[in-house]
Amino acid sequence: MIEKGRISALQMAIMIYPTIMATAVLLVPAITGKFAKQDMWLSPVWASSIGFLSVYIAHQLNKHYPKQTVIQYSEKIVGVIPGKAIGFVFLFFYLHVNGIVLREYGEFVVGNFLLKTPMIVVIGSMVLVCALAVRGGLEVIARSAQIFVPVVVILLLIITILLIPVLEPKNMFPVMEKGIMPSVMGAIVPSSWFSEFFLLSFLLPFLGEKEKGLKWGMISVFAVMVTLVITNLFSLFLFGGITATFTYPVMSASRYIDIADFLQHLESIVMAIWVAGTFVKISVFYYAIVIGTAEWLNLSDYRPIVFPIGFLLALIGIWSAPNLEELAHFLGTTSPFYLISIQTLLPMLLLLLAIIRKGNGTKR
After folding, report:
1. By residue range, what is the domain housing residue 166?
2. What distance in Å separates the CA atoms of residue 126 and residue 338, rounded to the nearest whole number?
3. How many domains does the chain divide into?
């Protein structure tokens, strides 16, 4: 195995939590509000089913091939050449998606804080920091997540508590006025974020306690679901029917905090949540790309390709969309089908084929 480090199941759960939550917490309320209206708080509950399914598929595949990632066992399941093709699809997909995440990060920072800073500087600096973490190995990323994730959770709690005086719970009524379908429609886009739990397939081979992998994976899905339900509820309580008109509802909500004309302008807290959470998210995606590429090319060490892939990520981050409007349109229309097809449906097919091969007594 190329990676010598080992992580605990708890560390895996802590790593994967911000990998899904970091970008979703700012973007999902507006997207779900557009379709689900006052039922937007229900949408993450339905969307989480894709997360639970993705974790289960990743765990079952890991049971069949315990010391291999999806890049390696694809070749065992469907043969070398088709397996290489599937591996390339996964690697290109994660390269593209991580580039989009970088662009989301860049658009948020430049659009709200560093107005005159070139986008390439913001994206390039994040790639460099993440590259150093990835070169350090899986244990370094896990320990970084252990430091940042509690900070992110505490900051989110601070914002929600400080917003309580200005909330209007009546905005959530009537519940299911038009039935269940609006909330289900609102769940389509968030479900694509939940499909990213299949990244566990790159982490499960390196667990020190494999029997706890499924449990902590499911706990992480549940934690993300609860976080998004709370975020959507607070956005709904504050903005009501106009939630969908905001690009970043949580960012806008922080501007409403005013305690005794003293505690105001807490946008920096949202900035801290975004930067810390996105660092972990980009690092986990980045690590999956690097370790997967090294396995796909049969390299003995993944470190020499960290910086070249980082350069590619920065370029894709710049090229992935001409502006924020195009990026938002992609996230709200095409991305759910794109992400779920690669991260849930394709792995499901691999699992079915693996079960058939095992049933036929084919040697793995």
Report:
1. 9-322
2. 25
3. 1
